Amino acid sequence: MPLLVAMVVKEMQTWLRGRLTFTVFGSVVLLLCILFVVLAVRVLGPEANTPPPTTQPAGGSNSVNQFIVANRALLLFASMGLCLLLTSAAVAPAVAASAFAGERERGMMDLLLLQAPGPGLIVVGKVLAAFLFSLLVLLVSLPLFGPAWSFGSVSSDLITTMVVVVLSSTLLFTAFGVFFSALLKGALAATIFAQCASLFILFGLPGLYLMAQAVDAGDSVQGLLLLNPFVSVLSAGGSASETLARLAPPAVRGMINVPTPNWVPVVSAPLWAVGSSLWVLLAGVLMVGSSVAIDPNHRWRLRSRA
Fold first, then answer.
1. What is the distance in angstroms between the CA of the first residue and the CA of the last residue of the chain?
2. Cα(185)–Cα(295) distance, rounded to whole angstroms?
3. Which residues have CB under 8 Å from 44's CB, separation 6+?
4. pLDDT tens readout for residues 148-195
5. What domain count does the chain have?
6. What is the pLDDT of residues 30-54, one digit of tens each?
7. 225 and 272 in contact (C-beta within 8 Å)?
8. Using an 8 Å Cβ cutoff, are 264 and 274 in contact?
9. Taking the CB of residue 9, how many other CB atoms lie within 10 A of it?
10. Contacts of 295 (CB under 8 A, 6+ apart)
11. Can you give the residue range of the structural domain that contains 113?
12. What is d(CA 236, CA 279) in angstroms, rounded to the nearest whole number?
């Protein structure tokens, strides 16, 4: 345990002293501010002084705008959360993809493997360090959630869902970065592959579902939506999901309130809990694969050669 803590501290110090650290922080702040302004202009438009309706919008633009104003706190919070997930998918893999770049450049990979108690602990330390650093970068977005509270309260269920989804998905994105860093020698190639995998989780899976839905085969790939953080947030349940479903396009409404598959042990478990469990499990599998990839004398690799 002390060795693991020392590894995490050492990695954190390396990233915090890096030349690109403040560039990353500044870029994240700028990106989130731009996204927030675009969303805020839509949610807090000139209709902000219109009295909110008490019923579901009938479909007219005026009623839809009034409905948006009536639920602006929820929409601001959910929109900012989705922007945060997008930022996590871009930042976490990029940070973690350089996990083994320094050791390889200095020719210290063999020395690291000899000194550490095992490749598994090395990978865990790299993942934890990149995970904590990514969360530190994401913390700069907290002030942007303030307007959501200024227009009304947000349910505790949605806040819990958002926190769990961001933490577990960021862990998965970090594991992607470390995994490709273990497989590939170049940090740039590892970053590209890790970000492509993360963005596929965010946008590729819903795209596959919409394509399958267009040919009346949406149910066959609906289970893949369990791995999508966006769907987990939108399917938080209760009034939040109902409100978001009313404003979503008809083709996207099928991704909200996705039923829990029969193969899930706890059928009544919410979608975000099932998805978070799968992300953590997949992150563990990637860490095991990373430990095998960095150790040329790993018993599994030796067994496959034999």
1. 34
2. 14
3. 72, 76, 147
4. 666 666 777 778 888 899 999 999 999 999 999 988 888 888 889 998
5. 1
6. 666 676 666 666 655 544 444 444 4
7. no
8. yes
9. 13
10. 113, 119, 301
11. 2-305
12. 17
